[in-house]
Automatic annotation (TrEMBL):
GO terms for biological process: nucleotide metabolic process. This is 5'-nucleotidase. Coiled coil: none annotated. The lineage of its organism: Eukaryota, Metazoa, Chordata, Cephalochordata, Leptocardii. Signal peptide: none annotated.
Length: 305
């Protein structure tokens, strides 16, 4: 399962990025070479990556020859001469991360297919959107103020929103166009019809494949997945469950918020990654110290542009 991410998603390179835009490439490379021994701070996806790599240890305990592992790849616009600082930082934190593309200004999306990407994370919304348009699950990561020490150490936790993330945005469009009453009528009429696939469906399916190894071995699972949706449970939840069943996709927990804030339930879950398409939900999660990533897809994204 391959997760590709930009260097700025893994490490805190915001000051360096600002310096690059203000001073140009040559000055940026000179700065990175001068500071190549300085360890970079942790970026917004660091703890997610660290926890994903820890799952590999559990997989090897089940079967030392199993090569279906989390593979983390940095795909960066960074110039090769600036890459030494990134590599030194990887080694400092003890990350088992051997694959890098330092693309020297080339669009990183050029290489997502070559790396067989299952998820792409970047702080650049244009890059994430481009990846989705090319058929790759992708999300925009943001700096957050949560305490990394509060995140679970023994289990990777991933939260998916429903409409326009795990599922298509077809019902979201009905809600935007016809309001709550129109949405509820649509869901009642189509209660037995599975929803279409959203941009994160294939990623969720790959996660479930790894989880199944532990289910079959009757071992504690080092991954837990969640659906946290603004949908109501009784009036609009049934269709989501039918959809998951139709796909054969197992999600460990489903929480139906019926329009209420998701932040409290997210704080209780303590996820390493929360994927949602709504900027307001993302902002609330970040304010609450939750590592959140926006999926730039569907009608919410179109309305936010």
């Amino acid at each position: 399962l391959t997760i590709t991410l930009s260097a700025r998603a893994l490490f805190d390179l915001e000051e360096e990025d600002k310096f690059f835009h203000e001073n140009g490439l040559d000055a940026y490379i000179k700065l990175m070479v001068e500071k190549e021994k300085e360890v970079l701070g942790k970026g917004p996806a660091f703890e997610f990556v660290k926890s994903a790599l820890a799952v590999n240890d559990h997989i090897r305990q089940l079967d030392k020859d199993d090569d279906e592992l989390f593979d983390i790849v940095i795909v960066s616009r960074n110039h090769a001469q600036a890459g030494s600082r990134i590599i030194n930082s990887i080694n400092h934190y003890g990350l088992c991360l051997e694959r890098l593309s330092l693309a020297g200004g080339t669009d990183p999306n050029t290489y997502l297919g070559a790396w067989n990407t299952d998820l792409f994370l970047s702080p650049d919304e244009k890059d994430a959107r481009s990846a989705i348009e090319a058929g790759f699950p992708a999300a925009v990561v943001y700096k957050y103020n949560g305490d990394h020490k509060d995140l679970p150490k023994d289990q990777l936790r991933i939260v998916f929103d429903g409409d326009a993330v795990l599922f298509s945005d077809e019902s979201e469009r009905v809600f935007k166009e016809k309001g709550l009453a129109g949405f509820q009528q649509n869901e009642e009429q189509k209660a037995g019809i599975p929803l279409g696939e959203g941009p994160m469906k294939t990623f969720a399916s790959r996660i479930a494949q790894i989880q199944e190894k532990f289910h079959k071995a009757n071992k504690p699972n080092p991954i837990r997945t969640y659906l946290v949706t603004a949908r109501s449970g009784a009036s609009a939840g049934q269709r989501t469950l039918i959809t998951l069943r139709d796909w054969g996709l197992k999600i460990d927990e489903c929480h139906y918020k019926s329009g209420a804030s998701k932040t409290a339930i997210l704080k209780a879950i303590r996820p390493h990654l929360f994927l949602d398409d709504s900027q307001s939900h993302i902002d609330a999660a970040l304010k609450g110290g939750i590592p959140a990533a926006k999926v730039p897809y569907g009608i919410n994204y179109e309305n936010q542009k």
